[in-house]
Amino acid sequence: MIEIKKLTKQADNKLILRGVDLSIKKGETVAILGPNGAGKSTLLKVLATLIKPTSGLIKINGLDLKKDHIEIKKLLGYLPHSSLLYDHYSPLENLVFFGNIYGVNNVEQKASKLVKEVGLSFFLNEPVKNFSRGMIQRIAIARAIIHDPEILLLDEPHTGLDQGAISILNNVILSMKEKGATTLMVTHDFKQAAEICDRIIIVKNGRIVDDFKIENRNLGFVSEKYGLQMEGVS
Ligand code: ADP
Ligand code: MG
Ligand code: MG
Prior knowledge:
This protein is α/β, with parallel strands linked by helices.
């Protein structure tokens, strides 16, 4: 359902993506790992239709990202590295605002259900300006799924979260998977990747250098080979 061929991205005379080939099946949960500056976020932003590729082909559900990006955007839920919310709006108002952009039916009902799901019922009508990173991230997660996307694109979603927010995030990803959604998650957190993903892709220097199913690989060996932190991975 996601087909990427010979994808490159150049910015400021620098090749950030140097020929990425990748295919992802419907329902897969894929982690993208690799060193800082490897091009992971750039790959996600291209898929999220936020930046244009320099060359190559991307097809999502048979649609061509070059021509059909408006259709494709409706299929996507994107969680950026750090999310901007409307400071003076409550979690509910933020979600209703973004739900309306996507034309979500019964948006208020859906939004308040999601606020509960991410454990913020108590703060339903508080302005978000004083919320912690964990609370903001919970709203951002709810926002990313308010239109029932088929594809979730998550950029370092676990970074800076407390244990409570981590379990909520993981539950959301797993319940989206049960509904058939596909997830691509950039992360530095090998433990979370091993826990919730089926497959790991390693990106280095703008290329995919490894790609494997978690069940088929000795994770200790992988973490050693790529210098990944794996505290608590069993
Ligand atoms: P990662 O997410 O793997 O840490 P990024 O995709 O954010 O890496 O960035 C990859 C490289 O491309 C970095 O060296 C970064 O500085 C550079 N880069 C990213 N975006 C731009 C841009 N718009 N213009 C120039 N260089 C960029
Ligand atoms: Mg980075
Ligand atoms: Mg990044």
